[in-house]
Write a structure and sequence with these properties.
Pfam families: Lectin_legB (PF00139), PK_Tyr_Ser-Thr (PF07714). It catalyses: L-threonyl-[protein] + ATP = O-phospho-L-threonyl-[protein] + ADP + H(+); L-seryl-[protein] + ATP = O-phospho-L-seryl-[protein] + ADP + H(+). Helix content is about 25%, strand content about 20%. With about 650 residues, the protein is an alpha+beta fold. It folds into 3 domains: about 260 residues, Jelly Rolls; about 100 residues, 2-Layer Sandwich (Phosphorylase Kinase, domain 1); about 210 residues, Transferase(Phosphotransferase) domain 1 (Transferase(Phosphotransferase), domain 1). Strand 19 and strand 20 form a beta hairpin. The relative contact order is 0.08. The structure holds 2-acetamido-2-deoxy-beta-D-glucopyranose (6 copies). One 2-acetamido-2-deoxy-beta-D-glucopyranose (NAG) binds next to loops.
Length: about 650
């Protein structure tokens, strides 16, 4: 697909150019009168076309260039102002002063060879059709050379060394009267430093250059000056000569350009032109002149066969290249890391390509969450049609990868209604991907804390029965991890955001063991290595040992979160409320523990049942988050308390100690 703005851009640009030109034309262009007057073309565009008489190969390009010859051999082209100018003062009969300036460029297939050149001509006719090209510039017939009846004067920019006509070299500027044998000529270049220094210019360089032609009717001084386009007119002319034009030209003469090519493929361009009788010519605005085509193209029309061949070759090469690029990017896009030791985990392994497809290229519309460990995308497994969540975890250090993967794979065998089902993993360079069951109701944290920051993802809060059900589910899941499965699994990061809810608001504990990835990683990850701030058991700071009891501590904080509907640490709150566990404890000591309950929980709903249950959970939360690890219950005991099998813990000891 082509981006439409790419197509529009050059279009609008050219429209702007046209408008600028039109403005310039309206401001400056002058017409065209037989007596006096002049011509001003700052680029060759205008309403209704450009009023020039074109002949031969001459044309106006869409860019506003006057192209005298196309890149062909032995062709000629000319462009003249359609009306003649009166060069003789009608009363005195003397030749009037005139001046002209133009910018030209010669583009040749070969760097140093071209042909034949451009002339700026004052001609009695614009019908040059019978004249030959090549060294005659299309301006004069070879059989008419030197005839006084030619009534012809021109300035030649000659790029061919025709010694038979007295050319000095293949890069010169000359004055010519009725013939192509120059009356006087000089190597192309310009004087600087007040005439003390001469700089060569190469006419066929392809670079645009500016020419000034000035004739003084009184002194009969004819001057031509040349300069690179970025220089202003040099003070000293390149070539000057006294020429009495009286007997050479007619009263009324046409002005314009002619050009011809010989054996070399050459394009001759005029970018802008200004001419004025009886006065100084108006300066061209160099910066707004049309742009030449890129040098490599040379602006010429190619041989049709060559075009077809090159088009064919280009298409072939492009097809080949895009094939290669496609294959390479495809390979790179789907490249994955696969090591020998992973062979035994084959059944648990997803190809990156499969996950890429299932999440529709990890596009933003598939993004369902951004967690502490990475982004989570929704997808569907093609065969089972099962909705899954794919978590992409950036992971630079690969040192514990082997251990971690073996743990991930063993987690794939965990089966419990409150433990998220893990389907497998995939690996790329610097990235680990885990595939879980998709949980339509997302993270529990959204329902608990969202009221603090209303947003588009706002969820209605959960009523107490739902919360209590979730709490029991998480407890059951943790009990399974700690006690029931064949291996002890420490979750390491119990918190509300790691509890996911299915469509019936059943709790599924997720992200177990992920913190382990960072165990021996960089030091900046240390807090993640042992859990999340606010949920970490105090002994972790000293021993760093992860135990079932550290999970129980976090679970205690989690219980308080669910009942109080707030995060464990909220620095913007008043000091006594800031740390959740301290605030609940203080209220408990005063016998007002229920004051800490989330105001969205209706405590009077079912008689005293809700109050009893929230008190139970808050007390259990405090018990689990006891600073002394040995005082915390294990998950089996927790479940007994929650189910009413074991008595509600007596917290008087905790409440009566002064912290
Ligand atoms: C071009 O100039 C000639 C002579 O002035 C005039 O007759 C003709 O209408 C002009 N053409 C355009 C398109 O302006
Ligand atoms: C141009 O000159 C040729 C002869 O050289 C003549 O046949 C032709 O009619 C002329 N065209 C015009 C427009 O004068
Ligand atoms: C230059 O032109 C003048 C007439 O204007 C003539 O007398 C002179 O011989 C010419 N010089 C050359 C070298 O052709
Ligand atoms: C300028 O060009 C002339 C003629 O081609 C040559 O003799 C001369 O050495 C050149 N000068 C410089 C500075 O290139
Ligand atoms: C003109 O352009 C040439 C080459 O493009 C550069 O070397 C030179 O310095 C320029 N001169 C000025 C006055 O900008
Ligand atoms: C120029 O040439 C004409 C005709 O030959 C002559 O009458 C006139 O005096 C010349 N002018 C000068 C300044 O020599």
């Amino acid at each position: 697909m082509i981006n439409p703005s790419l197509l529009l851009r050059p279009l609008t640009k050219s429209i702007i150019h046209q408008m600028v030109r039109l403005l310039l034309l309206l401001l400056f262009i002058v017409p065209v009168s037989a007596n006096g007057g002049g011509v001003f073309f700052n680029g060759f565009t205008g309403v209704g076309g450009v009023n020039l008489s074109l002949a031969g190969t001459a044309k106006i390009t869409s860019d506003g260039l006057l192209q005298l010859t196309t890149k062909k051999t032995h062709v000629k082209g000319s462009a003249f102002h359609p009306l003649p100018f009166r060069f003789k003062d009608p009363t005195s009969g003397k030749i009037v002063s005139f001046s002209s300036t133009f910018v030209f460029a010669v583009r040749s297939k070969f760097k140093q060879l071209s042909g034949n050149g451009i002339v700026f001509a004052i001609s009695p006719t614009i019908n040059l059709s019978g004249d030959t090209g090549s060294q005659f510039f299309g301006i004069v017939k070879d059989t008419d050379l030197g005839k006084p009846t030619n009534r012809l004067f021109f300035v030649e920019l000659d790029t061919i060394d025709n010694q038979e006509f007295g050319d000095i070299n293949n890069n010169h500027v000359g004055f010519d009267i009725n013939t192509i044998r120059s009356n006087s000529s000089i190597t192309a270049g310009y004087y600087t430093d007040g005439g003390r220094r001469f700089e060569n210019l190469t006419l066929v360089s392809g670079d645009p250059m500016q020419v000034w032609v000035d004739y003084d009717g009184v002194t009969m001084r004819m001057e031509v000056t040349l300069a690179p386009i970025n220089l202003s007119k040099p003070a000293v002319p390149l070539l000057s000569s006294t020429i009495n034009l009286t007997d050479i030209i007619n009263d009324d003469m046409y002005v314009g350009f002619s050009s011809a090519t010989g054996s070399f493929l050459t394009s001759h361009y005029i970018l802008g032109w200004s001419f004025q009788l009886n006065g100084n010519t108006r300066d061209l605005e160099i910066s707004t002149l049309p742009k030449l085509p890129p040098k490599s193209i040379n602006g010429g029309r190619r041989n049709l066969l060559a075009v077809w061949i090159s088009v064919g070759v280009t298409v072939f090469v492009l097809a080949l290249l895009s094939g290669v690029v496609f294959t390479v990017t495809r390979r790179k896009k789907f490249a994955q890391v696969y090591e020998d030791w992973e062979k035994e985990y084959e059944s648990c392994r997803f190809s990156y390509k499969e996950l890429y497809k299932t999440t529709r290229g990890f596009r933003t519309s598939s993004l369902i969450g951004v967690g502490g460990f990475g982004r989570v995308y929704k997808g569907m497994l093609p065969r089972s049609k099962l909705d899954v969540a794919v978590k992409r975890i950036p992971h630079e250090s690969m040192q514990n990868m082997k251990d971690f993967i073996s743990e991930v794979v063993s987690m794939c065998q965990l089966r419990h209604r409150n433990i998220i089902r893990q389907h497998g993993y995939s690996r790329r360079k610097g990235e680990l991907l885990l595939v879980y069951d998709f949980m339509p109701n997302g993270g529990l944290d959204k329902y608990l804390f969202q009221h603090e920051t209303p947003s588009s993802s706002y969820r209605a809060s959960l009523h107490w029965n739902q919360r209590f059900h979730i709490i029991k589910g998480v407890a059951a899941g943790l009990y399974y991890l700690h006690e029931e499965w064949e291996k002890v699994v420490i979750h390491r990061d119990i918190k509300a955001s790691n509890v996911l809810l299915d469509q019936d608001f059943n709790a599924h504990v997720s992200d177990f063991g992920l913190a382990r990835l960072y165990d021996h990683g960089s030091t900046s990850m240390t807090t993640k290595a042992i859990g999340s701030v606010g949920y970490m058991a105090p002994e972790l700071a000293t021993t760093g040992r992860i135990t079932k009891a550290t999970d129980v501590f976090s679970f205690g904080i989690f219980l308080l979160e669910v009942v109080c509907g707030r995060r464990p640490l909220e620095v913007e709150l008043a000091e006594e409320k800031r740390v959740l566990v301290d605030w609940v404890l203080e209220n408990g000591k005063r016998g007002k523990i229920v004051d800490t309950v989330d105001s969205r929980i209706n405590l009077t709903e079912q008689g005293n049942k809700v109050i009893e249950e929230v008190e139970l959970v808050l007390n259990l939360g405090l018990l689990c988050s006891n600073p002394l690890a040995t005082e915390r219950p294990n998950m089996g005991h927790v479940i007994e308390i929650l189910e009413g099998i074991a008595p509600v813990p007596d917290l008087s000891e905790i409440f009566n100690t002064d912290a």
